[in-house]
Every structure is written in C-alpha cells, then in structure tokens.
Fold:
Amino acid sequence: MKFPTWLPIYGDPSYRGDCPKEAAEQATFFNQLRKHYPDSYGILALHPKNEGKRSGAQFQQLARDKALGLSPGAADVVIPGSPAFVVEIKRRDHTKSSWQPGQLPYLEAAHNAGCFVGVALGWQGAWEAFCEWSS
Structure:
C-alpha cells in the first residue's frame, strides 16, 4: 500500500504481523471515543457506510443512495469541527490493507478543503490522529 506525500500517516508504518481487520480497528476506535467523550466527540463522530460489494437490485439502491448524498470513498471516521476530522483507518500492518475506489480522491478533496486528514494504522493510529486534532 502506497501513501501519497500529502497524506499524514498515524501509527507505525514499519509494523508487520498479526493484527485485527479494519472493521475491528474501527469499532475499537469508536468505542474508545464514546467511552472517553460520551457527551461531545462520541456523539458527533460518524462512519459513512458506503463500502461493500453489490449486485442486482443493490445497484439500484446505490443510485438512490448517491442521490441522497452517499459519497463513494468517504473516510471511515468523520467528526464535524473546525477543521473537520477526516481519517481513513487501515489495518495496523498496512500491507494487509488496500485502497478502495474513491478513498484517495475523497481524502485529497478533504485535504484541499482544509480538513484535518490522515490515514490511521489501527485504532491506536486513529487515536493518535484524534489526539493531535483535538488538542
């Protein structure tokens, strides 16, 4: 997995080994956020659900979802703010992850719009990014 030079990396890019899947890392990050900030960031933080394989009637639903605001490639964690927090979570061992269609263009657009943007390697990387953003 290659990272563009404009995209900050949070976590240890040299780590190789066993690690949870992206969904588990994301769940852990959101659990920690809601535990430590139940009345603020834990309420505001969201994950735009747009990944997944589709077939048949699901393509028609995808067209409806896009019309309603679905943005392919949207980052895993978005927290409204000034600037907004926009971070994509990958596995701690990033060689076990890959970029999905639209993810880099989404992050670049967020970066160009002035958002706090990054890619997090594991939930700890996401927490590191969050702590930098919220301080």
